[in-house]
Amino acid sequence: MDVKGEAARILAELRAQAEPERAESEKRYLKSDFVHIGVPVPALRKVAVSAVKASAKPTRDEVLGLAQILWDATDEGRPVHEARMAAIDVLVKRAALLEPRDLGTVERLIRGSTSWVYVDAIAEKVVGRLVVSYPDLAAVLDAWVDDPNMWIRRTAALALLPGIRTGNPDLERISRFGDSLIGEREFFIRKALGWVLRELSKKDPAWVVQWVEPRLAAVSGVTLREAVRRLPADDAARLRKPS
């Protein structure tokens, strides 16, 4: 693969689909300082993943190189939103090629993020998949859950989702991370914890009830609303009821 050529092609195709009104609307919604082109997500994803389709047989180095070029793309000195989203789509599409040593590269992307719109797919579909494939990497999450960077902490929580969805939830870490994050004042952390509990409640509602109930005095309203959303009605009502 001509990595630089593919990056240039992707950017050119995205710019050819520019929708200025959409760009301005998206920029306001995300409260973004980045350059926005205004490409709908399905169209953006189609352009991005075309570079790493199965028939192209991309290598790990090519995937990482393409993602990095797209991530670093700028216009008038500012990052380009769609280029960063394309970088994430490339990594997600070929996450199976990544190795434990690539977690450092992924971490740099998270630390360079400014919004959930970049962090969430990386957290679940890249970091989470790596942890499922290489369980020893979960030890990295133990450090991340207490990291000063809010997006790293959010990633630590959301990276537990693939394990839940594949039927192998890390209950010890879910409990421990929950206790670490339960006092968070950041909305995005409270929401992430709630999502993890909500996803687990689809498979093991009793565990979620037993974890949440003794912590009702500490759990935030944001977390609780998500945690009870998929619980049986009687359990949800009991947990929602003020003490």
What does the secondary structure layout of this molecule look like, with pairings?
Elements: H1 3-16, H2 20-30, H3 41-49, H4 60-72, E1 74-75, E2 78-79, H5 81-93, H6 103-111, H7 116-133, H8 138-144, H9 150-158, H10 161-165, H11 171-181, H12 187-201, H13 205-212, H14 221-228, H15 233-240
Antiparallel strand pairs: 1-2
Helix pairs in contact: 1-4, 3-5, 4-5, 5-7, 6-7, 7-9, 9-12, 11-12, 12-13, 12-14
Radius of gyration: 19 Å
Category by helix and strand content:
mainly alpha
Strand content: under 5%
Quaternary state of this entry equals single chain
Total helical elements: 15
Question: Which stretches are low in confidence, meaning pLDDT under 50 for 5 or more residues running?
Answer: none
Broad shape? globular
SSE pattern: HHHHEEHHHHHHHHHHH
Number of DSSP strands? Answer: 2
Pfam families: DNA_alkylation
InterPro entries: ARM-type_fold, DNA_alkylation
Protein name: DNA alkylation repair protein
Organism: Actinomadura chokoriensis
Walkthrough of the structure:
The protein has 15 helices and two strands. The protein is mainly alpha-helical and 243 residues long. The protein has a two-stranded antiparallel sheet with strand order 1-2. Strand 1 and strand 2 form a beta hairpin. Helix 1 packs across helix 4, helix 7 packs across helix 9 and helix 11 runs antiparallel to helix 12. The protein is globular, with a radius of gyration of 19 Å. The model has no long low-confidence stretch (mean pLDDT 94). Pfam families: DNA_alkylation. This is DNA alkylation repair protein. InterPro entries: ARM-type_fold (IPR016024), DNA_alkylation (IPR014825).
